Amino acid sequence: MSFEEQATRLNHEEIVALLASHHELRQEHASIERSRDTLAERVDELTRQIEWFKRQLFGSKSERRLVDPDGRQLALGEWRSKEEPGTEITVAEHRRRSRDRKDADAPDDAGVRFDDTVPVEEIRIEAPLPDGDHEVVGEKVTLRLAKRPSSFVVLKYVRPVVKRKSDGTLSCPPAPPAVLGKGVADVSLLACLAIDKFAYHLPLYRQHQRMKAAGVRLARSTLTGWMQRTADLLVPVYEALLGSILSGRVVTMDETPIKAGRKVRGKMKTGYFWPIYGDRDEIVFPFSESRSGRLLQDVLSRYEGVLVSDGYATYERYAAQVNGIVHAQCWAHTRRQFVKAADVEPELTAAALERIARLYDEESKLNPRLSDGEELLEKRAQHSKPIVDAFFEWLKTVLEEHVLLPRNPFTEAAHYALSREAALRVFLEYPDVPIDTNHLEREIRPIALGRKNWMFCWTELGARDVGVFQSVLASCRLQGVNPYTYLVDVLQRVELHPASDVAALTPRLWKERFAGDPLRSAVDRVKNADS
Which of the four pLDDT bands, split at 50, 70 and 90, describes residue 83? Predict the structure, then answer.
């Protein structure tokens, strides 16, 4: 019986009750539909999270986008058949120079290549001459690269005790001063300990094991104390580095976590390094116990210029409060948001990544070191700006014409970019501003590798020392300075150097003033004398 037939047999009260029940059923059905859509959206979101975690555990971390020009990437071991038709091309005739015959006096193993700093020990092999009918007419050289186990040297200073005959007074020349006062560590050992830990990520306990295997007996706490006192000597250099960076026109900032300080038994607190990269290839790693904006206020209180960062809101809020700071944001982080949407919206994501790739292609053609500011701005206005304008217009059109859920990864990526449009355009107005923060993220990698090796800092003071060492060593690497030569010189020079001119000990200026004739360790002088 239909609903209309039922209604003809019902009185007014029954009809009202039936309509009310029918309305309630429709509302319940609509509520179930909404719950189903919400659950489906939640399932999609959790599925994306699971896929992301799988990629983090088992997949490639690279964000490089590989595009096969033929539309399909060949599998490993697969090749095109020779019978497969292709396009015929004409190869221009050319002449190839034949390889020169090997010089008879050249080493047998030409694969060993080294510079003058590598010691060469000669081993002569005598040729058997059974009778006087043979003579040596030449020599052949074979090179083999060898390595001794960790080689430690004890420098034994022998000082004569002199007695004056007239009055019997005894005198003795003083021992050469040590960097750490009366400590037994030579400056060469301190430099090597720091470089092994912070450049090659070898924890002190492993270095202690290596020293023990080499026959050196020291307490592990002694190594820790040496590193702390060495870091104290380098603090003025670190502060001079920070001052040099903040005197520039552009700084790039990021943050990375580090376990530092014991929170409760068996659990460490999480602190943060806030690396700051200057426009003269210098970097420092200030440490903060939190990720709040307090460090920005302390470190950047006197800075005026352009601050380049990722999308972390703390930078934006701080820049909005300070009149002298212009905030620029990173295109690589913007691109990263679209990469996350590749599985959900492959076509839209591919279109977005292609537009960003064209922008990077245009930027790669510029060389800020060889061009003046006006020329860079002109080229960016001519080539990069139209791509940026078209990109944001395209994003707005996509959001208007496509029906995308608010939690859709592509929708989130588009809103991420559009909400930061002004900051993403800053590089078009300032020639010194980079398009992204990739140059800074490359320098954070030693911290990430350290977290997997020395793992944590027992105290917040230890984290500060890590920041000091990383600042000095990373700046040496950026300036092309040998960190061993630099540390051996600066650790001997820092206490005698005028405090007013401590900036001269930063790697950038040290390379100009002292690199030509650096202070050496006694062990290096002995080695050079023997050679």
Answer: very low
Give, for 264, the enclosing helix (H) or strand (E): strand 256-264
pLDDT at 98: 57
Residue with more model confidence, 493 or 119: 493
For Cα atoms 351, 356, 359, give the angle at the middle one, nearest 5 degrees. 135
**Residue 70 reports pLDDT greater than 70:** no
Cα separation of 402 and 272, whole Å?
A: 41
> Rounded to whole angstroms, how far apart are CA atoms 358 and 323?
33
CA distances from 344 to 52, 407, 413 (A): 12, 11, 12
Chain centre distance of CA 63? 15
Q: Compute the radius of gyration of the chain from its Cα atoms.
A: 34
Nearest to 367 by CA among 378, 357, 376: 376
Q: 170-171 and 276-278: which strand pairing?
A: unpaired
Nearest to 450 by CA among 203, 234, 195, 193: 203
Taking CA atoms, 516 is separated from 489, 502, 511, 513, in Å, by 11, 18, 8, 7
Sequence-ordered list of residues with C-beta below 8 angstroms from that of 211, at least 6 positions apart, any chain: 150, 152, 218
At 10, which helix (H) or strand (E)? none
Q: 491 to each of 10, 190, 473, 485, how far by Cα in Å?
A: 101, 9, 13, 10
Dihedral sign computed on CA atoms, order 482, 483, 486, 488: negative
Q: CB of 478 within 8 A of CB of 372?
A: no
Q: Which carries the bigger pLDDT value, residue 282 or residue 84?
A: 282
Q: What is the dihedral of CA 2, 5, 11, 15, to 10 degrees?
A: 30
d(CA 226, CA 426): 45
- Give kind and range of the element (H or E) at residue 259: strand 256-264
Average pLDDT over residues 37-44: 80
Mean pLDDT in residue range 209-237: 93
Q: Is the pLDDT of residue 82 over 50?
A: no
Which amino acid makes up residue 208?
H
pLDDT confidence bin for 77, thresholds 50/70/90: low
Contact between 412 and 348 under an 8 Å Cβ cutoff? The reply is no
CB 470 within 8 A of CB 451: no
Express the helix, strand and coil content of the chain in percent, nearest 5 each: 50, 10, 40
In angstroms, the CA 189 to CA 177 distance is 15
- The whole-number average pLDDT for the span 342-369 is 90
The gap from C-alpha 365 to its chain's centroid, in whole angstroms, comes to 23
Contact 282, 275 (CB under 8 A): no
